[in-house]
Amino acid sequence: MGRLKVFKSLVKDSLDVITHGSLRYHIWMASLTLIMLIGMYCYSIQLEEGLSVTGMTDRVSWGLYISNFTFLVGVAAAAVMLVMPTYVLKDIDFKQAVLIGEGLAVAALIMCLAFVVADMGGPSVLWHMIPGIGVFNFPNSMLTWDVIVLNGYLFLNITIPFYILFRHYQGKEAKSKVYVPGAILSVFWAVGIHLVTAFLYQGLQARPFWNNALLGPRFLASAFAAGPALIILVLAIIRNFSAFNIQDKTIKKIALVVTVAAQINLIMLVSELFKEFYAPTHHSESAYYLFFGLHGKTALLPWIWTAIPLNVLATVLLTFHKLRNNFKILYLSCFMLFIAIWIEKGFGLIVPGFIPGPYGKIAEYTPTGIEIGVTLGIWALGAFVFTILAKTAINIELGKIKFKK
């Protein structure tokens, strides 16, 4: 009964915190709400008219929704780069950022599930994904495994921070024997969610563009580059607009993680390009379409030739110690790297897998305004959720809200 009373007080205080703030805070939340409403309107059109209002066809059946889903799985998995040093290796420098990283993982996973719902056409078919009720082809279906690991990882990233914040709200220290086993499990689970997503593509024999042994490891490398890069940008914003003290050495350590992951990701990219173009076969046509166009079809060229230079430039800037320690250059590099990997793991990975089709036909894909509206609405939802979680967590950690006995 006492815990229920504390929980009710926490909910009440949290609502008070997230509904009050500066003018900039209210403008930010109002902007996100407006974008979400636009996204909901676009989604209502999709519900009424079906997926025909999107740019997807029977030839290219995965587009902007699944591209963002794939990328965000990596962003969610990147929280492990803060969880492991903090909870397992006891590195106090990461402790300031770990709750922010886990909040970002929760927001990313919510967006992942929202993109899956959008891609399925509507929520009325979601019952198929409920174990024991839906028509699951378990354990053969990789999609089944993907649903299980995503929801499991979401559960871990909600419960562990909630327990820690719940204890801190009461003025007590969290017991390590309670949360450390879950933290260790989340480390392996984070690797699992991204590998299973990679296996989902690798297992499609009719799509040779994805039949690559490096796909799984490269998923992890790009995730551990883009995710912590986003965390650095978020920490920079928090440092500027709140009293939460994020030390320079914390950001510098995360930047080192980003640098190593970006370098490994770039090496794997070169390896893939060598495999595709040094001794090309007819299975290399998807890669040719992506990088050079095929039979006059060049829709993806501007995207990929924006991503590759950004990726290389950001990695080079991060590699030099002196440049990386200049925070203005660091933030710019992280932004460029985030955008580059979003393009590369989005349009650069998903769409070329369908082009050309099994019979050699080329049907290009271009997202419609409805798709873009729904996508922006889901990203706004993620930002909205993260803002609420971060504002509550920061105020608890600063002691501004605590349980009044």
From TrEMBL:
Gene3D superfamilies, sorted: Formate dehydrogenase/DMSO reductase domain
Keyword Phosphoprotein included in the entry's annotation: no
Spans traversing the lipid bilayer: 27-46, 66-85, 97-118, 147-166, 178-201, 221-242, 254-274, 300-320, 329-352, 372-394
InterPro entries on file: DsrP-like (IPR054823), NrfD-like (IPR005614)
Cell wall biogenesis/degradation among keywords: no
Keywords of the record: Cell membrane, Membrane, Transmembrane, Transmembrane helix
Topological type in the membrane: Multi-pass membrane protein
Domain of life: Bacteria
Family: Belongs to the NrfD family.
UniProt protein name: Polysulfide reductase NrfD
Species this chain originates from: Aestuariibaculum suncheonense
Gene coding for it: nrfD
